Amino acid sequence: MTLKNSLYRILGNETTSYRIALVAEHPIYQAHFPGEPVTPGVCIIQMAVELLSEHCQRGLKLVAAKNIKFLAVISPIETPELTYTFDMVQPLEDGSIKAQVTLTSGEIKYASLSITCQ
Amino acid sequence: MGQEIGTVDAAQLQLVDVHELLPQQEPFVMIGRLVALDDTTTVSETTISPDNLFVDDGCFSASGMIENVAQTCAARLGYVNKYILKNDIQLGFIGSVKNLKINELPKAGKTITTTLVVTNEIYGMTLATAKVECEQKVLLSTDIKIAIKND
Description:
The structure holds two protein chains of two kinds. By secondary structure, chain A is of the alpha+beta class. Chain A has helices spanning about 25-30, 40-55, and strands at about 10-15, 15-20, 60-70, 80-90, 95-105, 110-115. Chain A is built from two helices and six strands; from the N terminus they run ββααββββ. Chain A has a six-stranded antiparallel beta sheet with strand order 1-2-4-5-6-3, with helices on one face. The mean pLDDT of chain A is about 95. The model of chain B has no long low-confidence stretch (mean pLDDT about 95). By secondary structure, chain B is of the alpha+beta class. The radius of gyration of chain B is 14 Å and the shape is globular. The chains are: A alpha+beta, B alpha+beta. The interface of A and B includes residues 36, 40 and 65 of A. Strand 3 (about 60-70) of chain A pairs antiparallel with strand 5 (about 90-100) of chain B.
């Protein structure tokens, strides 16, 4: 499932960053976890890949990740707005794209992702 | 290493409903059943339902596969909690994913086998290395860290 316009909406973007709003009413939040909504790590990864697709204006799928770190839990109620920043986006010779991404809200860093998409 | 488990009888293990071992609920349950569990290794089997949340264009997505690995680890922790320590199921979160490689996505209807080997357990963190296979092919390999929520 595409998470854009389902689990999150894009509020705006700058050259290398996207500001998003989480949709707390999404069924995923009722299942993960009942009574204690937490954004699943895999959805944080998928949102990064979807936004990288927007940024590169082509469909991308995750093929590898050197390191993805989750630093703090993201509740859609306590932290409804987040910013994905592409610190580095590098096209590789085989056509894939390597990216360094950070996820923040205000001063707090929630995740860092070093991923390769094709 | 963490709690001693020994080797859990496979026939007995397969009778356990994974929903009892996981804090996640449907439609966010991404494993079918546990088929092997011992002091270091956990094996799960999952038949990919076509209406799974993470089936896109007829294939189980990267998100689904990574969550499948995380829940194989969560089901292990849940089994130890429920059947050995007689505790409640605790919330767990992915702390990190390292050295992830996705070679292929399985088609809906296929059964995948996930093998997770715990390499370290310390301070409520479980570090493991895992692979997902289907029909003798390795679809995904990764290192993963799962953190248990501190109450």
